[in-house]
């Protein structure tokens, strides 16, 4: 309570469907606090759902905190109606914010992509059973003042049963980021995250969220055929002067198309995606 000045509304920097995120301070050190909406407890089913999200967020988020590109869990309070989670301070900017994303040069965007791919690959491979995030969107990526990306919000994660390649899943997802298999049935694999990540890569390319882009251009969707030079953010084009970067833009687009394949078997794994992005990033010699 004291860390956020009794959850002062002025300290809120992010509102989501089931929680608020606050800037706070603990022993003169900045922190972030996630508070799930307490009004939900008036409805038992909703409260139970929120409580389940919160506990899963704590459990998986804590296990993922070893990765440098995941917002580190420092602790939690379980004495409240719904759990409260305390994190390291990782900044208050989100990838969804156009004023945050648009000015970033190509190398910085490539680093963000590489780092997030590493975090998602870790989620898929570092535990006894693969875990699917199910909510890879620009709303779940926070950036610090040096534009280092941190993945957040593990409450919607689901693990694949031992010995299985897919898991039954009835989650409702946003059409902009949900893989096609969500709308064809309810069995998904890690490749659903690959698709969502492909949409995120596309946003890094165009410099704004897909929702904003489609609204501005009166489109319902961004097709593969749209991945021509005119869709690339002008900031990238004006800052991309050396030949290798032009080649990388083509390689990046190809990777986006592979991630967005409607056939999940044709999508690369997140480990493959991470390796390709690391190779692109390492080949750049110019500073940020």
- Compute the CA-based radius of gyration: 19 Å
What count of helical segments does DSSP give? 8
How many E strands? 12
What number of structural domains do the residues give? 2
Average residue-wise pLDDT: 87
**Physical arrangement of strands within the biggest beta sheet:** 1-2-3-5-4
Helix amount, in percent?
25-40%
Q: What does this molecule look like?
A:
The protein has 288 residues and is an alpha+beta fold. The protein folds into two domains: 2-88, Phosphorylase Kinase, domain 1; 93-282, Orthogonal Bundle (Transferase(Phosphotransferase), domain 1). 36% of the residues lie in helices and 16% in strands. It is built from eight helices and twelve strands. It has a five-stranded antiparallel β-sheet with strand order 1-2-3-5-4, with helices on one face. It has a three-stranded antiparallel β-sheet with strand order 6-8-9. Strand 8 and strand 9 form a beta hairpin.
Please give the structural blueprint.
Blueprint: E1 12-15, E2 19-26, E3 29-36, H1 44-64, E4 73-77, E5 84-88, E6 93-94, H2 98-101, H3 106-125, E7 131-132, E8 141-143, E9 149-151, E10 158-159, E11 167-168, E12 187-188, H4 191-206, H5 210-216, H6 234-239, H7 243-259, H8 270-282
Domain Protein kinase: 7-288
GO molecular function: ATP binding; protein serine/threonine kinase activity
InterPro entries: Kinase-like_dom_sf, Prot_kinase_dom, WAK-like
């Amino acid at each position: 309570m004291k860390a956020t000045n009794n959850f002062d509304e002025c300290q809120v920097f992010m509102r989501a469907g089931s929680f608020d995120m606050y800037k706070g301070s603990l022993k003169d050190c900045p922190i972030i606090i996630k508070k799930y909406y307490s009004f939900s407890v008036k409805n038992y089913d909703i409260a139970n759902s929120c409580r389940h999200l919160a506990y899963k967020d704590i459990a998986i988020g804590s296990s993922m905190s070893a990765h440098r590109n995941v917002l580190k869990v420092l602790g939690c309070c379980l004495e409240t109606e719904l759990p409260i989670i305390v994190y390291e301070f990782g900044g208050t900017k989100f990838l969804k914010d156009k004023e945050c994303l648009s000015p970033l040069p190509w190398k910085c965007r490539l680093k963000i992509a590489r780092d997030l791919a590493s975090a998602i690959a870790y989620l898929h491979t570092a535990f006894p059973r693969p875990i699917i995030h199910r909510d890879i969107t620009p709303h779940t990526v926070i950036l610090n003042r040096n534009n280092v990306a941190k993945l957040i919000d593990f409450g919607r994660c689901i693990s694949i049963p031992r010995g299985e390649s897919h898991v039954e899943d009835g989650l409702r997802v946003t059409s902009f980021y949900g893989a096609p298999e969500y709308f064809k049935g309810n069995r998904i694999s890690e490749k659903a995250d690959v698709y969502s990540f492909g949409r995120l890569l596309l946003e890094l390319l165009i410099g704004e969220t897909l929702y904003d882009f489609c609204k501005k251009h009166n489109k319902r969707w961004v097709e593969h055929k749209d991945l021509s030079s005119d869709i690339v953010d002008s900031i990238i084009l004006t800052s991309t002067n050396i030949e290798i970067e032009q080649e990388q833009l083509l390689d990046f687009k190809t990777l986006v198309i592979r991630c967005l394949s409607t056939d999940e078997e044709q999508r690369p794994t997140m480990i493959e995606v991470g390796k390709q992005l690391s190779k692109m990033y390492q080949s750049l010699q110019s500073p940020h």
